[in-house]
Amino acid sequence: xxxxxxxxxxxxxxxxxxxxxxxxxxxxxxxxxxxxxxxxxxxxxxxxxxxxxxxxxxxxxxxxxxxxxxxxxxxxxxxxxxxxxxxxxxxxxxxxxxxxxxxxxxxxxxxxxxxxxxxxxxxxxxxxxxxxx
Length: 133
Known about the structure:
The protein is mainly β and about 130 residues long. Helix content is about 5%, strand content about 55%.
């Protein structure tokens, strides 16, 4: 996976090396969604791999430098008062991504039943959720 900065918009791209030394892009998505508080931009993309699984990309561009970690889950963002342990317990998808140079990205190979609506939670250095989508 790579994050590509075009100068106007950033993209997350999944590269495949099934052609030996050559790489090709098998999935791409602009990081264009933004939280209502303007603290994070985000995206996710799922590409059908076979009849049971998706290649799934998650990416976040952090606008507020207080966000040092992002948690992605398929538990609704309406449940903002859940602790991270409760969130992990109630989700079938729970991914923690560290922010590096303002970006966080993750690839998952997910079952069809796990792909749908995802919530992105930005955490500060104390582990407190400070931004949600």
